[in-house]
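Memo to structure team: turn this sequence into structure tokens by end of day. - J.P.
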Amino acid sequence: MKTLGTICLLFLICVTKAQDSLRFKQVYAPPGVFEDFTVDNLGNFYLLTKDNQLKKFNAKGDSMGVFNDVRRYGKLFLMDASNPLKVLLYYRNYATVVVLDRFLNVVNTIDLRKKDVFRAKAIARSYDNNIWVFDEQNAKLKKIGDDGSVLMETTDLRMVFDAAPVPERIFDQDGYVYLCDPEKGIYVFDIYGAFKNKIIYPDLRDLNVWGKTLIGIRQQWLVSSAMGLFTESQLRLPALVAERKKALVTPGHLYVLLESGIVHYTF
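Reply from structure team:
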């Protein structure tokens, strides 16, 4: 059976060959001005307001919850909704991960400083519902349990590479973990922390991974490439993507965060 990534890649290749017939259709997105957002695999929106309030809406615009405990943790740095039942909020200034349920109620709080993790730029949900953390201080990829215990860690990557990665995103997909450093490339590990490969995709931003397919934006093009293969398919994007603060591409959907709000396309 083809993986989702392969199917998406084949789809993009097909539409690229017939771009004249391709049309992006603008569909519903919650109104308002937001600082950040993400979307889960059910199409629910997680929207961060300017006062650091997190709101959840479903694809029809119904409110699903609000998280408003901003005084305790400060500015939200990153959120991961890859598991909508356990949403991760990362507050970098306090090295703290807050775990929310599907109604945005707090179910757990992990202080990474208690495990000597003081500097981490990227976290992500792991395939087994633990948490990947890249510890910048000792250049290690670590898997953290719900109790904050370190379940696994790599060797010091400064001993492996000339310069250790500084990933902005981590993806756990189909048995591999991807550390995405926009300057140095993508570092690929297996789920046990063994290094497998380094892949260079220059000038790609707003990266996402579907299965074993990398998706990113280069100028006005949506670029899709199977991991490890040096072939790309490109799809011309709407002009307003150039004005984005952030973009997120999921199968069949493009979400664009602008100063004026979020625009949502299907394709």
